[in-house]
Every structure is written in C-alpha cells, then in structure tokens.
Amino acid sequence: MKSFQITEYCHRLVECFCENAELCIDATMGNGHDTLFLCRLSNPDGKVKAFDIQEKALANTTELLEKEGCAERAELVMDSHENIDKYAEPETADVIMFNFGYLPGGDHSLSTRADTSLTAVKKCLDILKSGGIMSLCIYSGGDSGCEEKDALLSFLKALDRKKYIVVVHEYFNRPNNPPVPVIIKKL
Question: Are 65 and 35 in contact (CB under 8 A)?
Fold first, then answer.
C-alpha cells in the first residue's frame, strides 16, 4: 500500500477546484514535485512559476521536469517567496502552492521562517485570481519549530470571510506535530 503523503492530499484537493489553469505558482519549489504537478494541471498554453532560494532545489527541479518532459512549461526562479510580487501581477494566478519547512534531503538549517512566509502568503492572496485556490502544507516541530505554523494559522483565521474561505485540515491521530494542510479559496 502506498503511504499517504500530505502533498498528495493537497494535490487532490487542488484538482477538485481547478482545471485548465493559466498561471500556477509553486512558491516553495523544493525538489519540484508540486512544480511538476502544476505543469500537468495547467492548460497547454499555461505557465508555471516556481521559486526557491537554494541552487540545489533548482537543480533537482530541473532534473525532474526534464525527465518528465515538462521543462519547457515552467519558469524556475532563484529568489525568496517573499519577493513573489516582483514576478506575478495581482489577480493573475489560478493556483498557488506552498510547502513550508526545509528542502527534503537538504540543509535543515535553511528553512522557511514565519516572517518571510507570512509576507509571501499576504502577497499571494493579492496575486490569486477571484475563484483561485491556494494550498499550504505547514510543517512544524522538530527542526522548524511551531512559530511559523502559529503565525500562519493566526493570520488565516482573521482573513475576511466575505473574501476568502479557509479550510484547515488536521491529522487527528498522529503524534509529534504532523503537517497541517490548508486550502484557501478566494471568492
């Protein structure tokens, strides 16, 4: 039996709400699995923009996309997600995905932080089209602590309910700070 991963869960949720996307953004590229998913989700003329601050992430993602025949579909940007507004206009993205924490297989001392992640999410809410969907996979505990999780969830709880639907899911029977998947729909 295949293990159940939070990223796969978020992929299924995004698929339910989005098809034929024109612009998709992977705000935390990592090893490129969300980037590849978004390349396959977007329409044939659609664009995918993916961001990370680590050269290893860009190299791993490039390799994955080339292997899967999707390299021409994505623009890989070596920059922090907190600068995302330099690369996308307001109200242009159909889907935006985040995986907070550190690069799997990478240096655990390089991880997302509450301040930059909160800035990025705020900017992405402006970049997201009406009717668009944003997914957040929030990892906490261990190397990354809970500060980022607490800051993000506190911010999301206060979002205007007339503008956004925020659904926070949880693993109810898993110990040790399991990841928290969040889906945001912009109305």
Answer: yes
- Predicted TM-score of the model (pTM): 0.92
Beta strands in the chain (DSSP E): 21-26, 42-52, 74-78, 93-99, 128-138, 164-168, 180-186
CA atoms of 163 and 132, how far apart (whole Å)? 11
Angle CA(124)–CA(126)–CA(131) in degrees, nearest 5?
A: 95
- The model's pLDDT over 151-169, given as tens digits with 9 standing for 90+, comes to 999 999 999 999 999 999 9
Radius of gyration for the chain, computed over Cα atoms and rounded to the nearest angstrom: 15
Distance CA 100, CA 81 (A): 11
Rounded-to-integer distance, Cα 81 and Cα 89, Å: 14
Q: List the structure tokens of 7.
A: 């990223």
